[in-house]
């Protein structure tokens, strides 16, 4: 779905929500998840104001957690399935699977209004890691690409922080609120 720059919003949909209380790669689907302001997904292993991803904790456990919520566009699952992979919502570690929004094209600072009250601010791109290949051989390469200039494209979703509490369920609408221009492209976080 294209973003209407006049109104600076677009409507997409939540396909699935997922969370895991432990540091597992895949996250089981849920009936709903609750987003907590400044923390992330209630009950998820990555909940917190400071980093919870093990590799980042090892470097500096006091870093702010810019990866509280992981979102993947369901269109990526469709692309991967067409390439022979068996993937579905939550299996690549995402908390929210979306449809109808080009997540990777959003600028840094975009606000995603999810369901009735939740708001997530986009902080950057997920940096694919070797865990993808442990899940299914070749998956990491499948979520990386290059543009016409040879620059790396990371397709494994985006990360964000929770600005406003709220429950998010499959079928909930998503409204996109772009930040003021000039827009900054997403970089890995």
TrEMBL record:
PANTHER family per the UniProt record, alphabetical: METAL-SULFUR CLUSTER BIOSYNTHESIS PROTEINS YUAD-RELATED, MOSC DOMAIN-CONTAINING PROTEIN
Q: Which InterPro entries match?
A: MoCF_Sase_C (IPR005302), MOSC_domain (IPR052716), Pyrv_Knase-like_insert_dom_sf (IPR011037)
Protein species of origin = Dictyobacter arantiisoli
One Pfam family, please name it.
MOSC
MOSC domain segment(s) = 27-177
Which Gene Ontology terms cover its molecular function? Answer: catalytic activity; molybdenum ion binding; pyridoxal phosphate binding
- Name the record gives this protein: MOSC domain-containing protein
